[in-house]
Specification:
The complex is a heterodimer.
Chain A: H1 2-26, E1 38-42, H2 52-67, E2 70-74, H3 82-91, E3 96-100, H4 105-114, E4 119-123, H5 129-132, E5 138-141, H6 145-159, E6 164-169, H7 174-193, E7 199-200, E8 204-205, H8 212-224, E9 229-233, H9 236-252, E10 258-261, E11 273-276, H10 281-294
Parallel strand pairs in A: 1-2, 1-3, 3-4, 4-5, 6-7, 6-8, 6-9, 9-10, 10-11
Chain B: H1 2-31, H2 39-57, H3 60-84, H4 89-112, H5 127-131, H6 138-144, H7 148-166, H8 168-178, H9 180-185, H10 190-216, H11 228-238, H12 243-266, H13 272-276, H14 278-290
Helix pairs in contact in B: 1-7, 1-10, 1-11, 1-12, 2-3, 2-4, 2-10, 2-11, 3-4, 3-10, 7-8, 7-12, 11-12, 11-14, 12-14
Chain lengths: 299, 309
């Protein structure tokens, strides 16, 4: 009986050690140095997604290199972890939190209230968001989403032969809707100028930014409805769409369906990409870093 | 309308195929009394390994095999902890779900660097392309425009059904999940079969993950398994722990997912979230109806202590 208990104890001990090792291997390690400025980025998509996450991460790295800042990041985080992740970085006394997306607004505002000495740069935040921050430590970095849509839409209006164009979104964000609206407006205008008419299919949403298979299925379904120019705002989901378009073009023996990439330059990555709408977010982050350094950040 | 239904059915097969591998993985595990909720994690590591090996070797088939091997290796953590150490299966399954995707993301980051563009690999060819058939007929697309892995998934369903119901080895295997102590008294190697189940489970889950990057999507993205591992758990319950039932469940889930994508396109009055709920609401409804009566292995989730009376 005693031997059996001892054996059970040994097993429990080994189980605890193995559990500890697994948990320890998962724990992130953060180090912030007090003598230099540090920026921490949070992102719900991967920084290697070939789209939004990648472009935003590279923008931060470019800006940090120019300003001599240190960087940290957490990517592929769940919506439920936005606030906790931000607070974890705040507790490490970083100088600036960089949150690239409208979806982080609530978490940023909550953390900004609790950490008045830390700057929060919200890329694609609302124009009225900084006014909601009681401590004045939140800035919205706002590329004009509608203009982004206009650029893509103008190209789509010129290139569409079937008169049907499509848009794939990741989540129904304000900026995504603005891009969709701009895309449709410009496509319709340019098409009319060229004696054509354009139908923009209703926007579809994958619900996240990683599901490239959903992009593939969306694109196939939209091509069934004669869409021949695609624009997206869904990171890796867009890459799935481009795969489906390439396959359709290959089956047809010619490139008849096109895709417009954003926010990084992806021309040449897929045969169907006819252009990229490039947004230089690094300039906005660089300006934020300089504002932090000279104490003028906020608003 | 005909085109809508035809394309919906083709999408159903595409979306159900990886689920079949993952659900069979869970089925083999549960039939040996091990509830492995770590299928999502095993698929994630299989997906990354399959992608990397396919990229390096240029062979998607090697990628699939490597994905299976990676799944087995990671699942050995679960096997050792739950079989030898008799640790809590749910806890270790969850640990695998956190550890394995993190390991995959870390490996990808080390190999390609942070902030890298998406690398693309060549996918496994379909039977239609191998035979050089040009027809776009629905039945040709349904039965021939599939990769060999899709046929393998369906063959595995049949083999699993035969194994569990028509062979002595299969009955012994099931006995381990039903009443391991009784199985041991008639000379069945309970521990051996439990480890074997982890090998099969790891391999199938790894293949399911590798399918995503060698047969479905040309790229690897963190999180590309997208909850399929958890749907596989539901599919096993939905399928009443039989391979035929699991197949029906996977086709049902694939159909619901394909349907929600197409309904978003044809209906602009309801919010898109309503359509995205369809596969999950269907899961809850079906489990509420079918899952009311317990039909799973009786010793499922319970540790087996050889010396205990």
């Amino acid at each position: 009986m005693f031997i059996k208990k001892e054996a059970n104890m040994k097993r429990k001990l080994i189980a605890m050690v193995v559990t500890g090792a697994v948990v320890a291997s998962m724990a992130p390690t953060f180090t912030a140095h007090a003598d230099t400025h540090t920026v921490a980025m949070i992102c719900d998509s991967s920084i290697s997604d070939g789209g939004w996450g990648m472009a935003c991460y590279n923008a931060m790295m470019d800006a940090a290199e120019k300003c001599g800042w240190e960087t940290m990041y957490s990517d592929s985080i769940a919506q439920s972890a936005y606030y906790d992740t931000i607070v974890s970085y705040c507790d490490l006394d970083v100088d600036m939190i960089y949150a690239p997306g409208n979806q982080y607004t609530d978490a940023v505002l909550q953390a900004a209230e609790e950490y008045p000495d830390i700057a929060f740069a919200l890329l694609n935040g609302g124009a009225d968001t900084p006014a909601k921050a009681e401590n004045g430590n939140v800035s919205s970095l706002l590329p004009d989403a509608k203009q982004i849509g206009w650029i893509a839409g103008a190209l789509a209006g010129l290139m569409s032969d079937t008169g049907t164009i499509a848009f794939i979104g990741g989540m129904e964000l304000d900026t995504t809707l603005a891009k969709y609206d701009g895309y449709g407006e410009a496509a319709a205008y340019v098409a009319e100028e060229n004696g054509k008419s354009i139908t923009l299919l209703d926007p579809v949403y994958s619900g996240d930014f990683s599901a490239s298979d959903k992009g593939l299925e969306f694109a196939k379904a939209m091509m069934d409805q004669d869409a021949d120019v695609f624009f997206g705002d869904a990171s890796a989901v867009d890459s799935g769409a481009r795969q489906a378009i390439d396959e359709a073009n290959e089956a047809a023996g010619e490139i008849k369906v096109y895709d417009i990439a954003q926010p990084a330059d992806l021309l040449g990555q897929n045969d169907c990409v006819i252009g990229s709408q490039v947004t230089d977010n690094s300039v906005l982050i660089e300006l934020s870093m300089k504002a932090v350094e000279d104490g003028s950040f906020g608003g | 309308m005909g085109s809508f239904i035809a394309n919906l059915l083709l999408a159903t097969v595409r979306m159900a195929s990886p689920l079949i591998f993952l659900s069979l993985a869970e089925l083999y595990s549960q039939r040996a009394g091990l509830v492995n909720i770590g299928i999502e994690g095993l698929a994630a590591i299989g997906s990354l390994t399959g992608f990397l090996v396919s990229l390096i070797s240029g062979s998607p088939l090697l990628g699939v095999l490597a994905g299976a091997l990676a799944g087995i290796l990671v699942n050995m953590i679960f096997a050792y902890a739950t079989i030898t150490l008799c640790a809590e299966q749910i806890v270790y399954g969850m640990a695998i779900n956190i550890f394995a995707p993190a390991l995959a993301a870390f490996t990808y980051r080390v190999y390609f660097g942070s902030g890298s563009e998406l690398v693309q690999v060549e996918l496994m060819g379909t039977l239609k392309s191998m035979l050089g058939i040009k027809s776009d007929n629905f039945f040709v697309n349904l039965f021939l425009d599939q990769t060999p892995m899709v046929y393998l998934a369906f063959v595995l369903v049949i083999l699993t059904a035969v194994y569990f119901t028509r062979t002595k080895a299969g009955l012994n295997y099931k006995a381990v999940g039903e009443y391991p102590k009784a199985a041991a008294t008639i000379g069945i190697n309970v521990i051996g079969i439990k480890y074997l189940s982890c090998v099969i489970c790891g391999a199938l889950a790894g293949i399911g993950g590798a399918y995503l990057t060698t047969c479905y999507s040309k790229t690897y993205v963190d999180g590309n398994v997208a909850g399929r591992g958890f749907i596989a758990l539901a599919a096993v319950i939905f399928g009443r722990w039989s391979s035929g039932g699991v197949l029906v469940a996977c086709l049902f889930f694939g159909f619901c997912d394909a349907l929600q994508i197409r309904l978003q396109l044809v209906n602009n009055t309801l919010p898109y979230q309503f359509f995205q709920m369809i596969p999950y609401v269907a899961t809850i409804v079906v489990l509420a109806i079918i899952g009311a009566k317990k039909a799973g292995p009786r010793a499922s989730g319970q540790p087996y202590r050889k010396e205990e009376r």
